[in-house]
Amino acid sequence: MPVTRSALARRAARSAMEFAIDYVKKRRAFGSKIGDFQAIQFKIAEMFQKVETARLLIWKAAWEADQGLDPNISASVSKLYATEAAYEVVDQALQIMGGYGYTRFFPVEKLLRDTRLFRIYEGTSEVQRIVLAGHALHQYQPVMPPLEDLPVHIKRDNPEACPQPGQTAWRCRMCGYVHFDDQPPDECPYCFFPAAAFKQVPPS
Q1: Distance from first CA to last CA of the chain, Å, rounded?
Q2: What CATH number has the domain bearing residue 170?
Q3: Strands 168-172 and 32-33
Q4: Containing domain of residue 29, as a range?
Q5: Average pLDDT in the 135-144 region?
Q6: What number of other Cβ atoms are within 10 A of residue 119's Cβ?
């Protein structure tokens, strides 16, 4: 199951992050611990964020499965994110350790080879992207209304326009331009789509 691979990838990332954290607390350069350098701290922060985000995504997919819900989309999200993030985290851990990270003195070089595999088997990252794109384009229910259904705010949407009482507002579906008149323009002055691209909307 993809969630299992996500969990394994996240554990590998966590291990690499912990090795890196231990290393930066001990390694010194220019008279200071390298963990005191902001560039290193930023790397650690990014690693920690990715490990924790992967954990939450995995828990969400597992929770849906426990509740008898369809976990396929959440599992796909967790598989894509966790496996991609794991490789990035381990790669950064190796970068922090420098040449030592590339040797077999530390297990990070093995973790890098292992995490590369998670992006391939039981659904490659490309397959997960196809699954998620199909869901977003066909099954996902948006919360926001379409652009052309948004209410018109005269001063914001068309500050140069001074609509007369009773005039109709027309919004271009493509670029959002608002036209005030009894009829839509023959052509949008911004995106050049024809009058059919305009929809009548009530001003707020």
Answers
A1: 50
A2: 2.20.28.10
A3: unpaired
A4: 2-139
A5: 94
A6: 20
3 state SS for the chain? CHHHHHHHHHHHHHHHHHHHHHHHHHCEECCEEHHHCHHHHHHHHHHHHHHHHHHHHHHHHHHHHHCCCCCHHHHHHHHHHHHHHHHHHHHHHHHHHCHHHHCCCCCHHHHHHHHHHHCCCCCCHHHHHHHHHHHHHHHCCCCCCCHHHCCECHHHHCCCCCCCCCCEEEEECCCCCEEEECCCCCECCCCCCEHHHEEEECEC
pLDDT tens-place string over residues 151-184: 776 555 555 555 566 678 889 999 888 888 888 9
| Residues ≥6 apart with Cβ < 8 Å to 44 | 17, 20, 21, 24, 35, 96
pLDDT of residue 131: 95
Q: Could you give the CA distance from residue 22 to residue 35 in angstroms, rounded to a whole number?
A: 9
Whether residues 29 and 125 share a domain: the answer is yes
Which residue, chain included where needed, has tokens 């009058």? Answer: 195
Give the residue numbers marked as catalytic.
Answer: 122
Based on the fold, state whether residues 120 and 179 are members of the same structural domain. Answer: no
Mean pLDDT computed over 42-55: 97
121 and 28 part of one domain: yes
